[in-house]
């Protein structure tokens, strides 16, 4: 494989794959590098029912379709690779994979998305899969007639709390604030469900158990008093963190570690664009990631075409 | 059947044959869901690197998957996939829920290491 590309895209989620489709279709030689499975968070989504034109599709299938579409236009995709170092500063961008293979390009699109925010308290790693879960559709049926907690107050937390009442005897929603961030219809669905109760203005500060999770310690955020409750399981839905730490100090990030871009998805470094859940924005959806990916691709295409034009002019002089 | 490129185990008999015929075996028992798909994908990649290990999957909801679901090592598991590492037919490690590539390779290196 020739190791020079016009554009390298880091991340093969909805944003990166869309950028790959647009660039490859425009005959811009494009490589997508992805740590882990191509598809990103779409693969973590059981059913997507709000992607326009497709009434309902599994996230896995939508991701596979996007991947195939990009490949059919000639995009090279390397999944399950580790980016071990990179240099985005100069005119020629360099990305090293698995400590050995170096790729270069004129432009880079950072489409590294986000990951579920962990509770970040003692016991979380120990009891993952042994009482702590991040996926209601995957693990809900292990909690038939059991008492569980849902941690969080956004759309996912309230929607999943309601869906978990299919299995659990009792669902307690623990939320750090005194009101929910979720849309009103999710809140009212949860409030009218007889199996759901609420502990507001509280945080989980420790997961406790032996071979499996048995208890949690919670702290009231007003008086800071702690108490323990016995529990069979905890589902954590407290939002996402952007995968941007690798770029800190290289491109401009905001206080939430989100990448700052202008309306054309330019970052603070020339020739480096960003798209999707890792940029500073309010709404994180497949549709918004796809839109960002489109804009980043068109901007990167213009950038690359200008460089090539200049090279041609220099050569003809 | 699971939509992966791994060897599929469809019955208790196939499970025991696989263990009889291979010294080092890693089986991912799951569904086509968000916590499982990334593990199958890692296994498909690692299959090329860890030639001395037999990689396979088994659908969690098959009745015969009780050979995995009912293992004593899995009695406290509340998250799919259940991933089992076998050496000479014996369970040497079992994990529950999604695992990163680093976690999987660390288990392969620790429990299914290659003796020349
Ligand atoms: C459970 C769940 C349900 C959801 N439901 C819906 C829904 O119904 N409708 C909807 O519209 N949206 C939904 N969303 C949100 C939607 O999935 C995301 O907003 C969207 O997929 C983000 O796409 P992305 O490309 O920006 O990022 P991601 O999907 O996060 O993709 C980023 C990719 O980059 C890779 N990566 C990260 N760091 C690196 C690195 N250093 N090097 C190389 N690769 C890297 C990751 O492995 C990943 O593949 C849901 C999300 C979740 C988790």
Describe the structure.
The complex is a heterodimer of chains A (317) and B (116). Chain A is of the alpha/beta class and 317 residues long. Chain A has two domains: 4-115 and 240-316, FAD/NAD(P)-binding domain (3-Layer(bba) Sandwich), CATH 3.50.50.60; 118-236, FAD/NAD(P)-binding domain (3-Layer(bba) Sandwich). Chain A is 26% helix and 26% strand. Chain A has helices at residues 14-25, 59-72, 124-127, 136-139, 155-164, 184-191, 286-316, and strands at residues 4-10, 30-33, 76-78, 83-87, 93-97, 101-110, 114-116, 132-133, 147-151, 170-174, 196-199, 202-209, 213-220, 226-230, 233-236, 240-242, 272-274. In chain A, the strands form four sheets. In chain A, strands 1, 2, 3, 4, 5, 6 and 17 form a seven-stranded mixed β-sheet that branches. In chain A, strand 4 and strand 5 (93-97) form a beta hairpin. The longest helix of chain A is centred in the C-terminal third of the chain and has 31 residues, at 286-316. Chain A is elongated and about 75 Å long. Chain A starts with a strand and ends with a helix. The relative contact order of chain A is 0.17. Chain B is an alpha/beta fold and 116 residues long. Chain B has a single domain, classed as Glutaredoxin, CATH 3.40.30. Chain B is built from four helices and five strands. Chain B has helices at residues 12-21, 37-49, 66-69, 101-111, and strands spanning 7-9, 24-30, 54-59, 82-87, 90-96. Chain B has a five-stranded mixed β-sheet, sandwiched between helices. The radius of gyration of chain B is 13 Å and the shape is globular. Chains A and B meet through strand 8 and helix 4 of A and helix 2 of B. The structure holds flavin-adenine dinucleotide. Flavin-adenine dinucleotide binds at residues 10-16, 33-36, 40-42, 44-45, 48, 50, 83, 111-114, 243, 246, 276-277, 284-287, 289 of chain A.
